[in-house]
Every structure is written in C-alpha cells, then in structure tokens.
Amino acid sequence: MFTGRTAAFLGVNNGDTGAFACARTLRRQSAPSNGSQLCPLEVALLRRRYAPVRLRAPGVPRTSCAFALASVATGPVYPQPTSGDDPNLVDLRRAPRRRVCLVVEPTPFTHVSGYSNRFNELLRYLKEAGDEVLIITPDNSPDAPQEVFGYPVITIRGFKFALYPRITLSIGFGSGMVFGRRSLLQRVREFDPDLIHLATPGFLVFAILLMARVLRKPLVASYHTHLPMYAKTYGLGILIGLAWTLMRFCLNRADLTLATSPQICAELRQHGIERVDLWRKGINTERFHPRFRNDDGGAMRARLTDGHPTAPLLVYIGRLGAEKNLLSLKRILTCCPPGTRLAFVGDGPYAETVRRHFAGLPVVMTGQLHGDDLSRAFACADVFVMPSESETLGFVVLEAMASGVPVVATAAGGIPDLIVHGETGFLYTKGNTSEAATYVCALLGDAVMRKRMGDAARREAERWSWCAATAWIRNVQYNRAMNNFRFRALGGLGLPRSLSWLRWLRRQLARAFFKPA
C-alpha cells in the first residue's frame, strides 16, 4: 500500500473514508511534537483532490498542518465580509492593479436585467481601484457602446436566442475568433490579462474556455442564470440532466466559480461543481430610497393605480418572462381587499400573455422605466410581490427593500438569502398562492406592520454596498482564482497548466498499483 503522502500525490480516494483517511494518515506522519509542516506541494495536491483550493486569509500561517487538515476534512469556509469586518476588505486598492478581461453574455449594457447592475457596479469600482479592463460582449444593437467607464468594449456579432429573442448570444468560433491580426484571440493576447472573468451560462463559454487554456490564463466563471430551472419552465424538463452535465463540464474547468447566493452555491456543489464561492450582493441605497415615494407629488402612484392613488397597490418590477411565474399573481390579486391594484413594471417576451391573462382586472402595465421613475415605482408600492422560482439572487427584491417596501416572495432560489421571514418580508412555499395571499392581505390591512417591515428591510439593505462587494472580489476572490490556477497547473508544480495528460497518467498509476488497506 502507498503511504499517505504517496496516495495524496496519486489522487487516490481511499475507499469510503476519502479525505478523512488521508487526513488521519497525514496526522500520524507529519504532526510530531516538533511542529513539522506539510510541504506546499502536498497541501496543494490534497486540496485539489478533496476540496477547492482556498487562499489563506491575512494572518493565517502558511500551509500549517492544522490549516491543511481542516481544509481537507471539512472543505473550505469562505467568510463573507460585512460593514463591520476588517476595513482592509473594503479598501479597493489593497491588491495590486490588475488587467482583467471581462466576458459577459448577454450584454449588460443594452439588455436590461438584474445582473446588468452587478456588472456595471463591478466596472465602476474596478475603475476606481485603477484596474485595466477589456470587455467582450455579443451585441447586435446599433446602440452598443464602444466603451464603458473608459474601458474599451469589443462587440462581437451574435444571434437571437429562439426562446428569448430579446437577447443576443454568440458561439464565438467564427474566423474572427482566431485568424487575423485583429482577431479576438490576438486582441486578448495583446491585452495580456492577469485573469479572465466569464459570465455564464451561455454559448460563448466554450470559446472562452479554449481561449483561457491557449493563453494560459486563470479563469473566473460567474453563474447568473439557473439553467436547469429555465429548462423546466420552458417545457424542456427532459434536458435538465444534460444541462447539469454541460455545467459540470464548463464550470469545473474554471479556477473559481462565483454564484450569487448561498443557496445556488450549495446546489452547484451538490451537483459536482468544484471551487464554488459566493459573489457578495450589493445595492445602491441612494438610487433606491424611501424618499422617492412622494418626491413627485404622488404622480407615479397615480400612474400605477390608474388614477386611484389611495387604493392598495401591489407592484412587480422585472422582466416579463415565463420563468417569472407571473400568472400566479392573478390568484393573489383576487384574494386581496376590494379595490387593490397591481402594477407590472418591465417588459419581456411574455408581456402579451400577461396582458391577456389579467384582462378585466385592475392591472396596469407600464413597460420599462428608468432612472428616477424606476426609483419612484419601487418606493410608492405598498407591497412588492415576487413569484419567480428561478432567481439566482433577485436584485429587484433587494431594490424594493432599499426603497423601504415589504416584500412577499417565493422561498426559492437565492431569495431566502435576502429576506428574513416575518421581519423584512414574507416567504411563501413554492406554488402555494393561498399562503402568499394571506401574507399580502395581512400587510395591506396593517399599516403599522408595513412600516415596521419596510424600515427593517431598509436597514438590512444598507448593510450591503457595491464597494465592499467589489473589494472582496478583487482582493480575495481574484487572488484565490489565480492561486488555484497555479496550484492546479501540472498537479501543483506552479507551471503553466498545459499538460493535462500528466494528471491522467497519475490517475492510471493509482488505479493500477494502489490497493486500499
């Protein structure tokens, strides 16, 4: 039988005990009274085989035996900073300036969605930190920007997605990808990024995975659309298994995957995706603020209630798509007190279906709103309703909370990470519209409860700033991805990750020679 150290090098899973057996072996071999340490190579290999590699926090002794064993036995625990944490975490310039290639599909600049805010705020604070960014995004719009926050934008041609024709996607394997002096590959090579940050899922992911491997660059993948849930919503449930297989193939080739809520992080790990971490949420609490409720003399509330500003008002703001489960709001509306109004703010491919479904009911559809009008639409609601079951986070929920409005939402996806049930809003069981109607009616009938929950929601939203979220990404998570890249290269030797056959050979040797005790 190989020793514990040899087994670790070969990547052997010792029966059903796995990492715990290796940890016990290493404890016997390398924890004498003189305090000897595991060598960095052993720690890197152990982490690669049994747990995502983690970048040690400031002040933690490098590769100490206790640190290594804890990582192997329990998996990594990545603390999330809050406003009361180490002030270094919100110092944008703590890490050295970097060059980041940001690939976003679909575009966050002409396509309105929750993640548009996330990427715009990320770019805003990377600019403040002094980083250089090259942006790549598919966009056929004549209004596609050539630069954002002073950063150049490479716009590539794409195609309209059949299930959602408002967005532009791209495969990325055209001749402009590889060939020519101004090919996409050549322009990224000239930019020479320290890492590539790719938004997933999408079609462009395969080309960027290849580009990262060819250029030997660390790759961060951020996960924004819960693909298996969308497959189910659009009647493609038979493809859910395939969706998870493709996601494992793509995301496990990234050096770090960022998900937007703890619930989605857990689900990705349960389905075999490694090196997953949380992209901390943020909100612009000045853009979304209770002061917008009456700053226009009540004109927005009159608009949303179709001229009945004193009537109870429910508001939904967001994309009008089948995956948002909007038709279920009809049952909730009909259970509300007489005269209650419902307003839909937003647009999408499901708009006509929604309009037909709610025909004859006191419902207003405004289309998309922007700027102060959008802030007023949030703030003048009595209750914000969110029936979607597919949110990876749910930015509109956080924006409603920042506006001082209580939220009634489905307890699904990333939304439970935002709402404290009974304090900042209510969560109802998926598909249980009767439960949702009970919560909505309770809020509409009790102004004191609405005010108390709205104030608590505002206080919760004030804890999350985009500055701190971006500082955590560039100071900790980008470092972690680059560290993972070095440790995964050639099994931990810190060389360019280009000889995957060496890992294959190591596994073959393990299968051929290793015999469990």
Automatic annotation (TrEMBL):
Domain called Glycosyltransferase subfamily 4-like N-terminal: residue spans: 113-287
Cross-referenced Gene3D superfamilies: Glycogen Phosphorylase B (3.40.50.2000)
Sorted UniProt keywords: Membrane, Transmembrane, Transmembrane helix
InterPro entries per UniProt: Glyco_trans_4-like_N, Glycosyltransferase_grp1
Under the heading SUPFAM superfamilies, the entry gives:
UDP-Glycosyltransferase/glycogen phosphorylase
Q: From the record, give the transmembrane residue ranges.
A: 161-180, 195-215, 227-247
Tell me a Gene Ontology molecular-function term this record carries. glycosyltransferase activity
User: Cross-referenced Pfam families, in alphabetical order?
Assistant: Glyco_trans_1_4, Glyco_transf_4
Q: Which PANTHER family match?
A: SULFOQUINOVOSYL TRANSFERASE SQD2
Q: What is this protein called?
A: Sulfoquinovosyldiacylglycerol biosynthesis protein
Q: Which organism is it from?
A: Cyanidioschyzon merolae (strain NIES-3377 / 10D)
